[in-house]
TrEMBL record:
Annotated GO MF terms: ribose-5-phosphate isomerase activity
Name recorded for this polypeptide: Ribose-5-phosphate isomerase A
Self-association state and partner proteins as the record states: Homodimer.
Designated gene of the protein: rpiA
Known function: Catalyzes the reversible conversion of ribose-5-phosphate to ribulose 5-phosphate.
UniProt xrefs under InterPro entries: NagB/RpiA_transferase-like, Ribose5P_isomerase_typA_subgr, Ribose5P_isomerase_type_A
């Protein structure tokens, strides 16, 4: 799987142009892209980057990639990020690494949102991977109840013996809706629930998925 991730990452970084503002994703697949971008920077590529998490921020700095504050950025030319599941309509589940809110803002700012993935991430129907939902802590019981009304069984994500906290200090509810046929409808319903900062359904945000499969690379757009 690492070879598939690496191949997808290598194909994606070829799309970066000189002086681009580049969004850097979070996770083990995005890691390969960040490392490849750092190599290009060492060899003369001039870019500025925006990170999708504190973890990616530290990684980028340690690799010598210049970062911009997300609040100072009006647009991003290209973002390369991973996903937990994707389908051929380029709908995604993201947030396995807990960075979904910033990933969504970065994706929304991006002219090109390139998702890189190994072949295990491709599904016909989304929903085997539980949908991560970032909730403001005081709203977590309320949101859990609202999710039940949508046939979603959710659990607060743990970090050892404690509750997991996002970079924004919030909780994550991982919600099992079973396989769903209409991700856009579910995303719209989640958008209506007070207390949810962001959910991991990315609809109409990705412009291309590059998937490694064996030694091949397959592109969906
Ligand atoms: O959404 C994410 C982090 O919040 C990641 O992109 C997603 O979890 C995929 O991670 P990996 O590449 O490690 O499988």
């Amino acid at each position: 799987m690492d070879l598939e991730k690496q191949n997808a990452a290598n194909a994606a970084v070829k799309m970066i142009l000189q002086h681009d503002v580049v969004g850097l994703g979070t996770g083990s697949t995005a890691y390969f892209a960040i490392a490849a971008i750092a190599d290009l920077v060492k060899n003369g590529l001039k870019i500025k980057a925006v990170a999708t998490s504190k973890k990616t921020e530290s990684l980028a700095v340690s690799m010598g990639i210049e970062l911009l504050n997300i609040e100072d950025v009006q647009y991003i030319d290209i973002t390369i990020d991973g996903a937990d599941e994707f389908n051929e309509q380029l709908q995604l589940i993201k947030g396995g690494g807990g960075a979904l809110f910033r990933e969504k803002i970065v994706a929304s700012l991006s002219k090109k949102e390139i998702i890189i993935a190994d072949s295990a991430k491709k599904v016909d129907q989304l929903g085997k991977f539980k949908v991560p939902i970032e909730v403001v802590p005081l709203a977590s019981s309320y949101v859990k109840e609202q999710l039940k009304r949508l046939d979603g069984i959710s659990e607060l994500r743990k970090d050892g013996d404690s509750l997991y906290r996002t970079d924004n200090g919030n909780y994550i509810l991982d919600a099992d809706f079973g396989l769903f046929t209409d991700a856009a409808v579910l995303a719209e319903r989640l958008n209506q629930i007070e207390g949810i900062l962001a959910h991991g359904l990315f609809i109409n945000l990705s412009t291309m998925v590059i998937m490694g499969k064996g030694s091949e690379v397959i592109t969906y757009q």
